[in-house]
Specification:
Low-confidence stretches: 450-458, 460-469
Strand order of the largest sheet: 10-9-8-11-12
Distance between the termini: 31 Å
Mean pLDDT: 87
Order of helices and strands: EHHHHHEEEEEEEEEHHHEHHEEEEHHH
Number of helices: 13
Number of strands: 15
Largest sheet: 5 strands, mixed
Length: 469
């Protein structure tokens, strides 16, 4: 398993940055040419090696005025992006083929043509691919791909690590000071952003210290929260700084945007009065994006650290982690206010899902997804629907007030292996199953392993509402 690491330049000379920016701009023209010529049907079945040979024969590469290895690696990278775009469209076309014909032989023929990139000869497949594979356009003009054998590093007398990469002139390297002591290895991707260079490289996750930590031996359910990253079924909270990080950053962004809007209004008024010099000064000195982007990157790094640390603490205890599927989207919820939407920061949900999957795989713990519908509203003791108020759940049957996140984590754990509530059971059917179980619990009737009536109703709901499963 590979994972990406990022190193940043430190106090980079302005002249070096401009030289790298010019090289990235020229390589952006290479990417644009690749997308223009091969980002559609004409590029189907072609490899980056064939494109390189064709350009060498035509003399196309001379137009870009960059070193050979630079434009060849850029062609390879752009062709990989085109392939990924085409494969994404194929996934949609495969489903269309299944709906188009019920004949197994015809379906195998169409899928075979699609797999071998010979779909342009079939009228139906060509029509479907033109429909779902839209011609892409390059918008990347700030990246340089450096081959593994074309860069090296060294440490100076002050302990500073320097990365040397090829420039625009043969045998003249550009040396970049980095903010790390770990030398990047393999193929590098340099991204120029905000007057500094980001060095992206991949490492083997098995070599990381955290990957060599053993996992625990328990089976634990977890519930995602806002004030903390995760709450487990043992009642422990992990990542308690998350809520404070999100709230502080949200309030700071709100105040910053308010001030920027005021400055933008002053600049616009000055431009309308004819004072263009004042408008330009405000735009140049007060409405830039370099500082804003760096603050956003620093915040994202802090949040990722908090989330991954919390997940590692859970895996320290568990050989099986039971959680809801955080990649699933939910529609139809009541609208929330601007402040609430901004503070919830939906992107952290994706980071938590990434952390659970990555850390579990690297440390040998099993991640099990379950249906989390109504887990935060049901009392784990009696199974009855309670009243949620903040971080408290009031159970009207037990007469007990429970900590809502701990209660939800226990319910998530209990969903593991539930015969009636599967991962794809619609939420309205889950509610019916929960209410039926609660009624049986109150009447002291035995709970069946499964309910034929409910299973039959689930099949009906699956057919009538396929978008809910």
């Amino acid at each position: 398993m590979k994972t990406t690491r990022i190193a940043y330049s430190q106090r980079l000379n302005v002249g070096k940055y401009r030289a790298l920016a010019e090289q990235a701009r020229r390589l952006g023209r290479v990417r644009s040419e690749v997308w223009r010529r091969y980002g559609s049907v004409a590029g189907a079945g072609l490899t980056d090696r064939q494109v390189r040979d064709q350009w060498l024969a035509e003399g196309t590469h001379r137009r870009f005025e960059v070193l050979a290895n630079a434009w060849k690696e850029t062609v390879r990278d752009a062709m990989a992006d085109i392939t990924a775009s085409r494969e994404s469209a194929k996934a949609v076309v495969r489903r269309a083929v299944g709906r188009h014909t019920a004949d197994p032989a015809a379906r195998r023929r169409l899928l075979g043509l699609l797999k071998t990139n010979k779909w342009s000869g079939d009228a139906y497949l060509a029509r479907q691919m033109r429909k779902h594979w839209r011609r892409g356009h390059n918008h990347t003009h700030n990246q340089i791909v450096v081959r593994a054998d074309k860069h090296h590093t060294h440490v100076d007398g002050n302990g500073l690590l320097w990365l040397a990469v090829p420039g625009l002139v043969r045998r003249q390297l550009v040396r970049i000071p980095l903010n790390t002591t770990i030398a990047p290895k393999g193929t590098l991707r340099l991204i120029l952003r905000g007057d500094r260079v980001e060095v992206h490289y991949q490492i083997d996750a098995a070599t990381m210290k955290t990957s060599q930590r053993p996992c625990g031996g328990a089976t634990i359910g977890v519930d995602k929260g806002y004030t903390e990253v995760l709450t487990d079924s043992d009642g422990n909270h992990h990542g308690a700084r998350l809520g404070r990080l999100l709230t502080t950053e949200s309030d700071r962004i709100k105040e910053r945007n308010r001030r920027r809007a005021k400055l933008r209004s002053i600049a616009n008024n000055a431009a309308r009065r004819g004072d263009q010099a004042k408008a330009d000064r405000i735009s140049q000195n007060n409405l830039g994006t370099v500082k804003r982007d760096r603050q956003a990157a620093r915040h994202r790094a802090q949040v990722r650290t908090e989330i991954f640390t919390a997940v590692h603490r859970v895996v320290d205890k568990a050989t099986v982690v039971v959680a809801e599927d955080l990649t699933k989207t939910f529609a139809g919820r009541k609208p929330l206010g601007r402040d609430t939407n901004r503070r919830l920061a939906a992107w952290t949900k994706g980071v938590t899902a990434e952390a659970l999957a990555s850390v579990s795989e690297r440390r040998g713990s099993a991640l099990v997804h379950v249906n989390a519908a109504y887990t935060s509203q049901v009392c784990h003791r009696c199974g009855c629907l309670g009243r949620r108020a903040g971080d408290r759940l009031h159970c009207t049957v037990c007469g007990v007030v429970r900590q809502a996140d701990v209660n939800a984590a226990i319910n998530v754990l209990q969903r593991h292996g539930d015969p009636d509530i599967t991962l794809r059971t619609p939420h309205n059917l889950v509610k019916q199953i929960v209410q039926t179980r609660a009624d049986r619990h109150r009447s002291r009737l035995p709970l069946p392993d499964f309910s034929p009536a409910l299973l039959s109703e689930e099949r009906i709901i699956r057919k009538s509402h396929p978008d809910q499963v």
